[in-house]
Amino acid sequence: MFNPISAVGYSAWILKEVVAGTVEVITHIFQPGGYDHPMIVELPLRCVTDVEVTLMASSITITPGTLVVAVGAGDEHRPPALFVHVLFADSEDEALEGLRDMERRLLKVTRGRAPGDIREGTKSGDVR
């Protein structure tokens, strides 16, 4: 169930992330070795619908310093996955933590609750 109040909050949050990412990219331009840790990470998604996957990929790509380079289709054994090029993470875990936070916020908008919500019947660490 779409949550319009969460959508307003998500829009404000993503705008803040775009501004912060822009500042980070500009700052790194002038630092020697500022782009030392680029990487591509695989993000298994909790998003399942085409709309959720598209919104997630768009949110990542609009944020400076990140870009979705491929989408892995899911099946009955594996969830869909995004392959994301990240410029400024010190580790894969750090990159995935930020991306999972973005996904959690997005799913709160599209489903009316965050993944792992008690009403959903899963723990916060569960993939689905």
TrEMBL record:
<keyword id="KW-0812">Transmembrane</keyword>
<keyword id="KW-1133">Transmembrane helix</keyword>
<dbReference type="InterPro" id="IPR002758">
    <property type="entry name" value="Cation_antiport_E"/>
</dbReference>
<protein>
    <submittedName>
        <fullName>Sodium:proton antiporter</fullName>
    </submittedName>
</protein>
<dbReference type="GO" id="GO:0005886">
    <property type="term" value="C:plasma membrane"/>
</dbReference>
<keyword id="KW-1003">Cell membrane</keyword>
<comment type="similarity">
    <text>Belongs to the CPA3 antiporters (TC 2.A.63) subunit E family.</text>
</comment>
<keyword id="KW-0472">Membrane</keyword>
<dbReference type="GO" id="GO:0008324">
    <property type="term" value="F:monoatomic cation transmembrane transporter activity"/>
</dbReference>
<dbReference type="Pfam" id="PF01899">
    <property type="entry name" value="MNHE"/>
</dbReference>
